[in-house]
Amino acid sequence: MPDVQSTVLEFVNKLRKRKIEGSQATAKCTVELLRSVISQQRVPHSNQASALIDAVKAVGEQLVAANPVELAVGNVVRRVLHIIREEDLSLATAAMAGLDLLDASDDDGEDDNCKVVGYSAMSAAVAAAAARSTLRPPSLQTLLEGTPESAAVPYTSSSGADSESKSKSADKSSITRKLKHDVIEGVNHLILEISGCHEQIAEQAIEHIHQNEVILTLGSSRTVLEFLCAAKEKKRSFRVFVAEGAPRYQGHLLAKELVARGLQTTVITDSAVFAMISRVNMVIIGAHAVMANGGVIGPVGVNMAALAAKKHAVPFVVLAGSHKLCPLYPHNPEVLLNELRSPSELLDFGEVSDCLDFGAGSGSPLLQVVNPTFDYVPPSLVSLFITDTGGHNPSYMYRLIADYYSADDLVM
Amino acid sequence: MDPRRGPLAVPKVRRVGFFTSIEPSPETPRPNRSLSGPAEAITSSSPLSDSPSGQFISPVQIPPSRHHSDNLASRAAPVPVPGPSAFRRQLANDRTLHVGSYNPVDSLLGTSPPSSNGEVSEDSGSLFGFQRSDSAKLSASFPNGGFNMTVAVRAPRESEAKVAIASTSDGRKKNVEASGESESVSTKPRKEKETKSLKEKTSKAERRAIQEAQRAAKAAAKGEGSKRAGESSRPKPSKPAKQPQPKKEAPQVTSSVSEKRAVSVEKERRMDVPQTQMQYDDKSRVDKAKRRSVVEQTESKNKVELFLHLPQYERGNQLPNLSSNIFTLDTIHHAVYKVGLQHLAGDIAGDNARCIAMLHAFQEAINDYTTPPMKDLTMDLTAKINGYVSFLIECRPLSMSMGNAIRFLKNQIRKLPVDLSEPEAKASLCSEIGRFIDEKILLADKVIVQHAVTKIRDGEVLLAYGFSCVVEMILLYAHEIGRKFRVVIVDSRPNLEGQKLLRRLVTRGLDCTYTHINAVSYIMGEVTRVFLGASSIFSNGTLYSQVGTACVAMVANAFSVPVIVCCEAYKFHERVLLDSICSNELGDPDAIANVPLRNNKKHSKTMDNNKNLQFLNLMYDSTPAEYISMIVTDYGMIPPTSIPVIVREYRREDLLL
Predict the structure, then answer these.
(1) Would residue A350 count as lying in a domain?
(2) How many Å apart are CA B249 and CA B270, to the nearest integer?
(3) Could you tell me if A55 and A134 lie in one domain?
(4) Cβ contact (<8 Å) for A271 and B558?
(5) Which domain holds residue A60?
(6) What is the ipTM of this complex?
(7) Contact residues on chain B for A304, CB-CB shorter than 8 A
(8) Is residue A62 in some structural domain?
(9) Region Disordered: which residues (chain B) (predicted)?
(10) Last residue of some domain: A125, A160, A195?
(11) For A120-161, how does the pLDDT look when each residue is reduced to its tens digit (9 = 90+)?
């Protein structure tokens, strides 16, 4: 435990100091940390799922508080919670199915399974179905199962996980180790998914980029890099304009990488985005986070590009791995989900210190320097999201997000 | 002419659109002519119908009446200039009276009716056409017919010029040619209308006619003045040097000469009309230009394909070579040379500064100029100026405003009276240049500041992009008069001109917020007004300005923040522009490549040689008119849709002819 505690603290410190950059790296670190938390968490015999959930939540709260702007942390924590809930449920249903029918089929047989169970062992099945309905998207099947579900409402509202674990505290010894094992399996799967999302997204490049295309991008995103290179590898020849992304000049890094991979790249200033957009066929950016309403938080300057693209009817495509999908709806994201960086990136203090009048007691400082990190693009400006599960409309994002998270975890 | 002329001469600025009553002098009831509402048209027609009448009852000289089916070629035929001296004298009297009522402020602003004499617009042309062809009829319909005659005095000259233009098929003379064509087209219907019912639709034509009449009066007066050069003093230099004939034309020309003259006038015109930007993907022309060029440019290795039509040269290597040449060159005057180098090195930035520097250099060059023996001052000086201009273009492509200024200068040269001695001509030109600087740039800025400051209220947050000296003046002035506001300065790489503005404002105690253009949508939420400078505004309302302006305007538009553009009217241009690609200027790509990145400094060095990597440093972009709420100019505050009106009504009179 102490060593987990110390790694958590270390990671929290890193997040606080913004040592880890990029949502993918953060997500990876977070999920690895959570894995170690889970593996070292001593599980009580009863209620092991809720114990795991509590442990993960406790760590997750620290992490989110360390960098509330890095939404990927919260996303990953929620994903892990979701995994725990799901594994617990599948174990519960499997156990129950084993009890009644000796049919230890894996949980993916779901609905028939559920029905059978529902008739035979009513109370447990109701609990299971209730828990399931909180996890699963409402399918036609679950909607039709109206009566048992309504009966189970009190259970769901209290806590699905608790009710189940209570209901089958009998055969814990066999399940105990299995749950943890399954959860860690699931988390490993998540790690793979996060690290592999580039390839998943890049595979779709060929469907979106045609010959002689002119593509504008800004910021430095590994996803975008892989996406473009994938198209390049498929023998498509196209040109890329990269906005340099002052004051961090991420665009230069991206341009360097692109050129190294043999793409025809032109670096432009950020101010030339509007001028060039009329000759651009597609704007492709990597998101920092995608909100549930389909809005995008991206590198600073993205909103400008999106507006210009809208004005010129240029498709504005956002690439986002699933770990960037945030189940929250933004409120005033330009300010609340933003981060102001050091003014020194814009203006050297020495350059203006001579003309600042420090002695005058007017109270307010005469000179402010604003250097935000992120920009919010409203969903109306986005043409398409490309995630590792395919292309989606902005209006569909909330639904996609519901697949990844359970409703209980939205507020942490 | 008559008492009514007095009030006519008074208004200081012919204002268009919304204006503030900051000028102490009350606007005279004279109708605003630029916004030709029907009511105004009617009122303005009334002074016309009688104002010339009192004056010109003297024997009416009617130019040979023509068929309205006159085509362009036949118009090239000579038209004898009527000019009985009695009539002239009367006109001269008229002029002196006019000069007496002349208000210096008028001339400074350059927009008062008295100085509106030099206008060549398609309308005046067409009107003129109709008057010539139908003057007999018209003079019958007008009891006095006087003003027709005064137009007739002017007729031959103008017709020749027009014909010269219209008959040429040179595509470069877009505007003038267009006017020539529209003349031929519009002559007929308008004439028919006129003859049918004069009270109905004549008002506009009549207004023009009155202008025409004034102009002719002045022309005649000056003609006389130049005739009697010995006794009478020269016309005030602060007026556009108005003069009946280009030098080689004697007042009485015979028909055989005039055709040749038309050709030569045409040639002159062609030289004068600003060249369209050279398209640098046109190999042969580039080669030709290179052979002539003074500045040795090496083409940059890594050209951006989209901008092959623009010059893309290596930077920084010409300067030492050029500055060593400064004493050996004889073709380029040293003052011009110096300005050219300053442009090349970027020491002078900002359109107004560049334009003023260029004009001062020309002044100096003209002062030092001596006409070579056996050569004509006008021709030779124009050629010289052309050489200077092409040198300046080699150093850095001209801005639109500089093009306008050069056009103005060449017109001044062409309008020089023949019989002016060389020192006199030079003095006149220099004073004209000085007047241009004073009233078109410096005074215009002051007027703009006066207008714009009325749009700043207490508690506002104003956004300024980059550096514009007009915007700076506005902000400082508003601060001076005690307005409480905050300024957001948005800056962009690579020039970071906003820092200059920031320094100046902060030093003066303004409350400033500084940010980069990327953050403009972050900061726009708190901004209440956007003030932008301009390099030029085209007649379709497109704002051509420092790159990034369009972004700022677009974001402001998205946030429903009004965008106010401050631009002197001399920067208006009759071209049209849709995008930022076709007409632009490329800056030094290395300025972009060199990034203050802390971790990888060698980035640009290693990547320089890669064929696949280019750096594009656009200097300008064009903002669509829909993003602009208002343009503050020296003629008032106008919507972008009024730009062509300003260009047509006010600019031709000073620049062309």
Answers:
(1) no
(2) 18
(3) yes
(4) no
(5) 2-195
(6) 0.82
(7) 517-518, 520-521, 551, 554-555
(8) yes
(9) 1-129, 153-296
(10) A195
(11) 445 555 555 555 555 555 555 555 555 444 444 444 444 444
